[in-house]
Amino acid sequence: MKKVIKNGTIVTATDTFHADVLIENGVISMIADNLDEQGAEVVDATGCYLFPGGVDPHTHFEMPFGGTVTKDDFETGTIAAAFGGTTTVIDFCLTDKGAPLKNAIDTWHAKSKEKSVIDYGFHLMIGEINDDVLNELPVVIDEEGITSFKVFMAYKNVLQADDETLFETLLAAKDLGALVMVHAENGDVIEYLTKQALAQGNTDPIYHALTRPAEIEGEATERAATFTGLAKSQLYVVHVSCADAARKIAEARNKGIEVWGETCPQYLVLDQSYLEKPDFEGAKYVWSPPLREKWNQDVLWNALKTGQLQTVGSDQCSFDFKGQKELGRGDFSKIPNGGPIVEDRVSILFSEGVLKGRISLNQFVDVTSTRAAKLFGLYPKKGTIAVGADADLVIFDPTVERTISAESHHMAVDYSAFEGMKVTGEPVSVLSRGEFVIRDKTFVGKPGAGQYLKRAKYGETKANLTKESLTL
């Protein structure tokens, strides 16, 4: 049945205006004033914004790590994402050295196919480069539509790749039209500092941050950007946490190197002091890169405002405090890294960003939806409100006040990273391809309704990334 959404204020990355939206067959078919309602379900959005559904380019659902598995799978994780105003997620397939890449992709298809309530895609981890991998990459792109590759510069002896692997991946991506993503920390230095801290009896959660100083995130970011320039390739730096890394991205972009940067809500509103909470509660805030000294927050907000950073992902990677985070009691290096973020990403960016004047309303839409859709080959079907786009829409009440709490969130995890934080503005109803997933703050979707998204190559979407967006 077709739908007409009336009386809302439409907000895209470039425009804000009042109009009605007609949805037919899951697609936006018309945007105009006073649309004909005959034969349509009418949805009243009076007093609300109408945003394009959020695109979260960074999630880890049902991911094995540190001897356990993230608590939220593709069902609970995407339900929480939908409640938070996100209608598309891109998750990470972790590969095994010596095994075909297709094995990892098949594993992630099995995890997600009958569970996801919203649309989703995959990034693919590259842990080694050899002839087998290089021969398989074109097949991955053409058959699976996976056009972004993740290289870890940290987690030595677990996920970390060497510089040769990173450089060869950048060279291959240039030819193939893929975007290379990096977790930018110096894993070798972290390994040394961690062993040193433990040998000195420093085992509390705060040492997770102290053994991963901001300087080595900046160093790794600069190194990755340098390789990108040499390869004449393209790079996306995930979860930027500090001024050092943001500065290195800006410097590289000023040189004309195609480097894009993502930060996350946790780095914008939380700080290193949370890891010092007593009774091991600091373990709730252990993720990598770690939380930084509070002054970094202003730098990150300004980087979003000025375009030095372009997206905000969640890095959703949830572990229960009880039974999972507790694996690291007596040894901070054994605390599973990650936090529950996906549900609160959009609300925090609106409340702390737009309402406090740190970013504009249109920038908010850009960093939570549009830019990620462009970078990862989903635009213009995703990430905007336009005729022909998928009807992924969020009816958002900008006035409602709420307190974030584990008691009311929809993630499966037993704590909230933002417990007690007051925010203004939240999604009321959320549609995915024209069908309600959330209606009047109630879940009405269906596990398995989400579709797997094959994505365009980076080169094919480059026309959407204007030259002006590559300069500061």
From TrEMBL:
NCBIfam families attached to this UniProt entry: D-hydantoinase
GO cellular component: cytosol
Enzyme class (EC, first level): hydrolase
InterPro entries, sorted: Amidohydro-rel, Hydantoinase/dihydroPyrase, Metal-dep_hydrolase_composite, Metal_Hydrolase, Metallo-dep_Hydrolases_sf
Cofactor: Zn(2+)
Post-translational modification: Carbamylation allows a single lysine to coordinate two divalent metal cations.
Domain Amidohydrolase-related: 49-437
EC number(s) recorded for this UniProt protein: 3.5.2.2
Entry's transmembrane regions: none
Species the sequence originates in: Mesobacillus subterraneus
One Pfam family matching this protein: Amidohydro_1
Single GO MF descriptor: dihydropyrimidinase activity
Protein name: Dihydropyrimidinase
The entry's keywords: Hydrolase, Metal-binding
Family membership noted in the UniProt record: Belongs to the metallo-dependent hydrolases superfamily. Hydantoinase/dihydropyrimidinase family.
